[in-house]
Structures are given as C-alpha cells and as structure tokens.
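#onboarding

Welcome to the new folks! Below is a worked example of what a typical request in this channel looks like: someone posts a single protein sequence, and someone else replies with the predicted structure as tokens. Don't worry about understanding the tokens yet, we'll cover that in week two.

Example request:
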Amino acid sequence: MDAFITKLNTNIVNPLILLLFAVASLVFILGLVGFVGKAGDEEALTVAKRHVVYGLIGMFIMVSAFAIISLILNTFGIDTTNVTGIEK
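Example response:
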C-alpha cells in the first residue's frame, strides 16, 4: 500500500499541484502586467487587481495542499523517496 501511495503522490498529485501552481503564477503575472499596462482605465485596474488576488490565493492554496499532503505522509511514515517500491 505504501508503494501505491508513493507512486500516486509522485506521479499524479505532485505534478498536478505544480501545474496548478504554475497556472496561479501565470494569472498573478498577467494581473501585474494588466495593472501596470492599464494605469488609466479604472475598470481594467479592477480586473487586474482581481487577477492578482486570485493568483495569490491560488498559489497559497497549492502550497498549503503540498504541505498538508507532506504532513499526512510523514505522520503515517510513508516514505516518498522510494518511488520504485523495491526495498533496499
């Protein structure tokens, strides 16, 4: 069971968290670009501020998810370094 959880975490969960973190970072950066680029338009500034906030919230959620998963795996003593499932 430990090998299955390790493979699931390494091959599916961690890359998914990384992908979603990258998307949140992209939303954050696009919000910053929109905030700087549309300095005169109030409606565009509101949208850009919203993108910045959503990007920050998304990054916070992804970091929190990674930390919670790591905490759970470490609490139950599941070794995530042995991806092959072969005992040494």
